[in-house]
Design a protein that fits this description.
mainly alpha; elongated
Length: 196
């Protein structure tokens, strides 16, 4: 037993090179791409080396295309002057996402601590009675929704009133000057045009 415990004390298992050990990364260790460096690499096109800014921003395929076509015959290089800040930002977002799973959050303090036991129970609010909408107000809203012109049948359909109540409602709207009687220009049917 003693020899076995001595063996365990001196023997330390080695990590196999095929099994990488996950290391924690702090936010300051995440590699970032700089806009100034991308512009410096863009300037290499003067020496005939085009596409450096694209390689630097992680766009390998278009970097190769720029390298062999002299920056898409110079037009691509000129356009990249405007695109470099966006390419750098996209690359930095990608790198933050890539390293986020290994980010060491042990020393980060939570921004908000919520203790549900401290929350008070919601107090019931008194009911507020809404004023009843008169049929005339309802008719004016319907007319506004339908473009300002209605037939008597449409009023009956939208309000759900009986034909006698529809006629008295339309007469009331005319009496107050809210509506006027007119004819449809195509069919000649009676229409009520509302001033809404």
């Amino acid at each position: 037993m003693e020899s076995q415990s001595l063996f365990h004390q001196h023997y330390k298992p080695q990590n196999h090179p095929q099994q990488p050990v996950a290391q924690s990364t702090t936010a300051s260790q995440i590699p970032q791409v700089q806009t100034n460096t991308a512009y410096i690499l863009w300037f290499l096109c003067i020496l005939g080396i085009c596409g450096g800014q694209r390689f630097y921003s992680g766009k390998i395929a278009s970097g190769l295309l720029y390298l062999f076509t002299f920056g898409l015959f110079g037009f691509g290089q000129l356009i990249d002057l405007l695109l470099i800040p966006g390419m750098v930002e996209k690359r930095n977002i990608y790198l933050r996402g890539l390293y986020a799973r290994n980010l060491d959050l042990s020393n980060v303090q939570p921004a908000v601590t919520l203790n549900l036991g401290q929350l008070s129970q919601p107090q019931p609010q008194p009911l507020v009675e809404l004023p009843a909408v008169s049929p005339l107000h309802r008719l004016l809203r319907i007319a506004q929704e339908q473009g300002g012109t209605l037939s008597a049948a449409q009023v009956a359909l939208y309000t759900g009133l009986e034909p006698e109540a529809v006629q008295s409602l339309l007469q009331e709207a005319q009496r107050y000057g809210y509506a006027e009687v007119c004819n449809d220009p195509q069919t000649g049917a009676v229409r009520y045009r509302f001033d809404v």
